[in-house]
Structure formats: C-alpha cells, structure tokens
User: What shape does this take?
Amino acid sequence: MLGDLWVLMVEQSWALALLKGSVVTIAIGLIGMALGFLVATPLAIMRWRKVVVVSQLVDGYSILVRGVPGLLVIYLLFFGSIEWVKAITAAFGYQDSADNAYPYIVGVVAIAVISCAYSIEVIRGALQAVPYGLLEAAQSLALPKGVTFMRVTFPLALRLALGGINNVWQMTIKDTSLVSVVGLQELMRTAAIGAGITRSPLLFYCIAAALFFCMTAVSQTAFSSAERALDRGFRGR
Amino acid sequence: MDLGIIAYAVPFLVIGAKTTLLIAVFGVGIGLPFGVAVGLARCSRSRALRRLCDAYCAIFRGTPMLVQVFVIYYGLAQVSFIRQNPVLWWMIGDGLNAAILAVVLNTGAYTAEIFRTAFLSLPKGLIEAAEACGMHPWHVFSRVKFPLAVRQALPAYSSEAAIIVKESSLASTITVLEITGYAKRLMSETFAIMDIFIITAAFYLTINVVVLTGLKLLERRLSFAR
Amino acid sequence: MISSNLIKSAFATSLLLCALATGASAKDGVLRIGTEGDAPKFSMADPSGNVTGFDADIANGICAELKLKCEFVVQTFSSLVPSMDKDRFDVIISGLGITAERQKKIDYSIPYATTPLYFAVAKDSPLAGLKSLAQIEKALQGKSVGVVTGTTYARFMEKRMHGADLKTYDAVTQLTADLASGRIDVAFADSPTWMDFLATADGANFTRIDLKIMAMDAPDVLGHGMGVGMRKGNTELKTKVDAALCKMINDGKVKEASMQWFQDDYTIPCK
Assistant: This one.
C-alpha cells in the first residue's frame, strides 16, 4: 500500500504535478478574489446608497451571476470573446502571444466576476447592519460625510462583513477548478487526470481535498486574527 | 441557436428540474435549522462543543464539495460495516439520498458560519436586557437573538441558497439524473455543447431568480423602517 | 498591497513563461490535437503533460504521415468541441464515436478502430450464462445497469434495452466501483475496461457475459467506430487525415498500436 503510494507520487511524480496544480489554484484564487473585492466595494457602496440606475444594474448583475452555474460564466466569457480578441490582436500583430496568454486572463477574470457578485452582497449586507445610532452620533458631532464613512461606517461594516468575506474566499478558491475548461491544469483537474489514468480516484481526490484544506486552514488563521483585531471593544462585558 | 435542440432538450430538463428542486428543498429545509444550531453551538460556552463544531465547519468549508460527494458515495461504500447496516446503507446506498446528505452537510457548514457572525454581531445590550427581564434562554433565542440575527444573515444566506441550487448539480456525478445529469447525456448525444449549456443555465437562472427575489422580498419585509 | 502586487507580477511572469513553453497557436507545420487526457489506455496525460495511449499513437502516426509536428492540448471532454470550433486546435482525437447525430456538429475522418462491448455481472448472477441479446434484454427488466455518460453504448442501452434502470457514471472507475459495491446489478462497457477490472481484486467475483456486441450490430445508435473529429467544412484537412489514416490501417500501424494497448486488434479496414 505505502509502496504503491511511493511509486505513484514520487516515481511517477504525481506529487509534483499536484503541487504545481496547487500553485495555479492559489495564484488564480488570490488574484481573482482581490480583483473581485476591489470592484465589489464601490459597487456595494452605490447599491447601499441606492444610487439610481447603477443600483438596479448592480442588482441585475449580482442576481445573474449568482443564479447561473459558474461553469457557464467561464464558457461564455471564453468562447464568446475569443473571436474578438483574435481579430484585435491580429490587427496589432500580437496574435501568437495573445493566443497563449488568453486562457489565463479569461480564467482570472471569470473567477473575479463570480467572486465579485458574492462580495457585493456580503458588503452591502454589512453596511446595512451598521447600527444607525452610531451614525447619528457621528452626525451630531458634525463629522463630514467622508470622515463618517471612513472612520465609522466602513470599519464597523468590515467587522460585520468578515465572516461573509471568509465564506466568499473559501468558495472562490474552490471555484478555481472551473478554469480547467479553458485548458489550465489546476489542482482539481490534475487530480482528475491522475484519478482517471491511475484508477485510484479516492486517493487522488482525497489528496486534493487535503491540499485545499491546508490552503483554507492557513487563510482561516489569517481571518481569525483579523476578526480578533476588528473585534476589539466588542468582546467581554 | 437551433430551435430543434431546444424542443428536444427542454422536456428532459424539466424532469431533471424536479429532482434539482427536491435536493434544494431538503438542502434548505434541513440545512438551515442544522446550520443555525451549529452556528449557535460555535458561540456556546462549552469549549468541547465549540471545538467539535469548528472542526466540522473547517472540514466541510475547506474541501471541494465534489470530493465530499465522492467520499460519501464511493468512499463509505467500501466500508463493509456500512454496507451491512440497513439504515446507513439506506442513507448512502442510493445516489439521491447520498446527494441530499452531502448537500445538507455542506450547506450546514456554510450556514453555521453565516449565523455565527450574525450572532456575534448582536448588540449586547439587547440580550442583557432580555436576560434582565428574566426571559427563559429559549425565549431569549427565539424572540430576541434569532429575529435579530436573521436580519443580518439574510443577504449572505440568500447567496447560500442559490449556491445550494447550483451545487446540487454535483449529484449528477453519483448517477442522480437532475438538470445537469440530463444535460450531460444530451451534450454527448448531440455535441451541441454550447446550446445545451445555455438552456441548462436558463433553468438554473429561473430557479435562482425566484429564490433570490423571494429572499430579497423577505429581507425588505424584515428590515426595520429607517 | 505590496505583497499582492508582488504576487501579481510573479504570476504575470509565470504566465508569460508558460505561454512561451506550451504555445498552442495556429502555426505552419504543426497539427494541434485536442484530447481529454484522463481516459486510461486511450488518452493519458502524464504528470509532465505528455500524452500516451492508443489515441496518442494514432495522432503521432497521422502527424508522421502529414510531416507535421504534433502538439497536444489536454482539456475536459465537454470543452473539446467548442474549443475546436473556436480554433484552439485543429482536430480532436479522443476515442470519439462517429454517430449521425454528432455529425450535425462536427466532421469526422474515416473510422479507424472500434472496441467490442460486453456486459459484466457477478459470477453467481443468473445472467452470467446468457447467450443472446434478446435473453439479456428480458433478464434486465427492472435491474439496474451502469454505463459511462457520453459514450455511444450509453445511448445503446437507452434506446435499445428498454425496461432496465439505467445509471450513468462520469468515469469507468466509478462504474466499476459501484459494480463491486453491489449498487448496480449489471455494467455495460468496452472490452479494455473489463480486461482491466476482472484482473483486479475487486473484480475477482465478476465475469463478462459471453456475448460480443460490435458497433456494426447497431450502427444507428452505436455509430461506426472511432474517428478523428474536425471542424465542419474543413475538407482539405479531412482529405489529408483520411489518406494518412488509410495508409496507417493498411500498413498495420493501427493494428500495432491496438495490440500494444489492448492485446487485441480493433482496426476497422479502410475501404
């Protein structure tokens, strides 16, 4: 049993392949999440402020992306835009390099589009949950609107949003498995190939799960300390 | 898009949609109360209970659901004790039951996280006031804590409900013929991959628009007039 | 923020390197081949990305005949056809069964091989000794039968063997796992699958029903064997690939590959 494992992992170098897949997963997950969060914050604020038109558009985008399977988002982004990109890059003479980098770009953008939709809801929910009394207190101190937002609303909302953001991140890192359809060999795809051709699906999927667990365990520690930091003044009686 | 393909695919997908809805209804119906209970347990004073529930959440949120489905269906089936125990085998022997079990366990972990943060964010003064009135702990929960927490948790939970509908598609990997299960058959039969994909997505979108708007209306109803 | 910028630039650099190393663009002198990479014996991508198996041998043979360089693009099965449509690669070689229904979407080369199909059951099953398809169909009433999704033989079960409770699996390993655990009574798959499974410890209690089913027995559902998939209307490429395949079949190259991977000759003669 252990001997077999050694042969598979080391001699046939599946361990290395799985690690490489993990690196792709982490890279795409981190960039996609960061990009999604950066775009989501202003959109969520506009949604919270009920800015006309924008707020309805944001709502529509969020319902659409959250409503359809993630796989479709990436299929449409990739297969829907590839002809345009071909035409544009060919016009500038960069066709070869663009062709090759394109799947990576679409992969990251698709993950960002998905995580953004979920982040909007989390941030909006948190902004709405900030106790009104505190804002009134800020107003009665005659704080300018900008200062009220940066010093009172946003830090308080961030604390409330943390759990939800953690959820979105855990989902996003696992959603990266979708990018395999554009030909990227991330962790789950590597595991699926290994499972298929070595005929040990449980072994490969459990290793993949363990690797995912390690990633989320590390991020969980980061989130827990962030939570402790933002919780100052709320703990204890 | 080819109209013939739509006419051919839709009747199959309608049959699949019933199974998808069945899994989703169980996912919300059992997963929500279960998740709330776990979320509450994670804020409890008992360290052992907290640790246990933290570990459960960490495992189910930290690993891909596909793996959870596989381990529950294929992995547990290799244990002869489970194969011989009629109750356990009923739970995982059938693809649909195993899929529902996996969805409930998975959504339970995410729901617990959503409600844990919601419970933690409750203003202390209100709970203290309820306790000071001499309210029974159950009443403190059902009349004060839960109604307040649900308002904070609802936006995040509506996302989770949409995810349940979509994640139920993983049941197709363990022989359950829900929307995606039929879609896979149709795709390999006709090779009209994109067409079938878009029709399938329209099914999920329809279900989820109903779910998301429903929860949005609920959210509006529950929100305090400001 | 600094660290995230660092990661971004590191990622961008690695993208560029990957792009340079595994370029998959339309170039002269290169045949780009889409394949699934996780089908044992047919299309197997190893950890370093090389593809081996029967399909890979066929692909390399075609490239040699056409004096082109083979470039494999490994993708999941469901993304192969749309990717070829958008010119991510020129052909699909992934054990594709040729059926009339699929020919509406893509063009095929001439068929080059076909694998015989068998039912497998537990050794003590009453079905084990059956001899004809009619007997089997009758015995399958109300029994659960497993097949792999996306195969022509899944379609055969659906259209031809009425009354059986059909279960579809994403992969052969899942099908055999459920046969072994007793969730399904019967499984239906190609001969290489059973050759492997019956030799394992799990497969010791199982046997093939001694009835060989070939594509020619029901071409309307089982199709006409495996072919190379191409974009619709690419007649120039089709002529070339057909000629190359025909030469390989007549030279015995296809037989050689088939014997190597399946210990049996599955070649379809070239007309």
Summary: Residues 45 and 228 of chain C are 18 Å apart (CA to CA). DSSP finds ten helices and 13 strands in chain C. The first strand of chain C starts at residue 30 and ends at 35.
